[in-house]
Design a protein that fits this description.
The protein is mainly α. It is 67% helix and 0% strand. Keywords: DNA-binding, Sigma factor, Transcription, Transcription regulation.
Length: 195
C-alpha cells in the first residue's frame, strides 16, 4: 500500500517515529477542510493563514513531545479542535466571533443558477441571506455549530460528530432542534424564504 493511502493513525505513528513526509501527507489530505473551517469563523484570509499555521505548529509540538495526544482514529477532529481553540483565543479580546465572510462567501442560495435574476430579486435574496445568518447566530452554540459545519463547511454528520466529541445521533438531534428553532423564528417573524 502506498504511503498516501495509509490511514491517518498509521501516518501519525510514522511521523512520531521520524518520518517527516507522513505529516505532509496528513496536511495535504485535510488542509482544505481545516482551512475552510478556520475561514468560516474568522472571515479574513490573512488571519486564517496565521491560525492554520499556528494549528500545525501545535500539532507538530504535541506529536513531537508525545503530550496530550490520544488519536483513536480521529486525527481531523483533533486538529479541528486545536484550530477551534486558537480561533476562540484570537477573538476572546474582541468579545465576538464574526459569522459573515467578506468575499467568496458560501451562500445558502449558491445552488441557484438563474443568472437572469433581476436587481430586486437579488436584493431580496441578499436580505434573506442576512436575516438567516442573524437567526443562525441566535441559536444555542451546539445547534449553531452543527448548522455551520453542515451547510457552510459541507461536513458530514460523522465528521461533525468526531469534531464535537458527541455521537452521530446527538449531532442529528442538534440539527433537528436547530431546524425546528429556525422554522419557528422564520414563521414568527414572517420571513419570506424564496423557493
Amino acid at each position: 500500500m502506498a504511503k498516501s493511502q495509509l490511514p491517518d493513525a498509521l501516518l501519525v505513528d510514522k511521523y512520531i517515529a521520524g518520518d517527516e513526509n507522513a505529516l505532509a501527507i496528513l496536511v495535504n489530505r485535510h488542509q482544505s477542510k481545516i482551512y475552510g473551517y478556520i475561514y468560516s469563523k474568522v472571515s479574513d484570509r490573512d488571519v486564517t493563514e496565521d491560525i492554520f499555521q499556528e494549528t500545525f505548529f501545535k500539532v507538530i509540538h504535541t506529536l513531537k513531545t508525545k503530550k496530550y495526544y490520544n488519536e483513536e482514529g480521529k486525527f481531523l477532529s483533533w486538529v479541528l479542535r486545536i484550530a477551534s481553540n486558537l480561533i476562540i483565543d484570537k477573538f476572546r479580546n474582541d468579545k465576538k466571533m464574526p459569522l459573515n465572510r467578506d468575499t467568496d462567501e458560501v451562500s445558502v442560495f449558491s445552488k441557484i443558477t438563474d443568472n437572469a435574476l433581476n436587481v430586486e430579486t437579488k436584493m431580496i435574496k441578499n436580505q434573506v441571506e442576512i436575516d438567516l445568518k442573524n437567526i443562525i447566530e441566535e441559536l444555542p452554540h451546539d445547534q449553531k455549530e452543527v448548522v455551520m459545519m453542515r451547510y457552510y463547511l459541507d461536513m458530514s454528520f460523522k465528521e461533525i460528530s468526531d469534531f464535537t466529541g458527541v455521537s452521530v445521533n446527538t449531532t442529528l438531534g442538534r440539527m433537528r432542534y436547530a431546524m425546528t428553532n429556525l422554522r419557528k423564528v422564520i414563521e414568527k417573524n414572517k420571513i419570506y424564504l424564496p423557493s
